[in-house]
């Protein structure tokens, strides 16, 4: 059977104080030193310090996710720009001339109505007058 025996090191016990002997005044770092360090610390310094806290596998996953989001946003931006260009040029090349043609047709129809109303008014004023001179060509 094995027996255990505790061996004490006198040198080790002499270097450390007992729990009762410790106090806050024994500290070599003052509160003003701590505040100065916090004030001098930048956001980048804090971000770099996170490298020690987050495990490498988790950092890799976070970096891959951020890269994926950035690539997707870039692709959507490029696709959106190209789609906007196609729609804008199509509207200019096809929509604008079509709108002009529709407006011209509406003006022509309005002109025909005015001519018909004018011909009807001439028939009332002069019932025996020749109405063919007042009609537009093609009627």
Low-confidence parts, pLDDT < 50 over ≥5 residues?
A: none
Tell me, rounded to a whole number, the average pLDDT: 80
How many DSSP helices?
A: 4
Main sheet summary: none
- Strand residue percentage: under 5%
Count of distinct strands = 0
Rg over C-alpha atoms, rounded to the nearest angstrom: 46 Å
Shape: rod-shaped
Instruction: Report the span from N to C terminus.
Output: 129 Å
Alpha-beta classification: mainly alpha
Fraction in helix: 55-70%
The succession of helices and strands, N to C, reads: HHHH
Topology:
Elements: H1 10-15, H2 31-40, H3 43-53, H4 56-125
Offer a concise description of the structure:
By secondary structure, the chain is an all-alpha fold.
Please characterize this protein's 3D structure.
The protein is mainly alpha-helical and 139 residues long. The longest helix is centred in the middle third of the chain and has 70 residues, at 56-125. It has 4 helices and no strands. It has helices at residues 10-15, 31-40, 43-53, 56-125. The radius of gyration is 46 Å and the shape is rod-shaped. It is 70% helix and 0% strand.
Name its key features:
139 residues
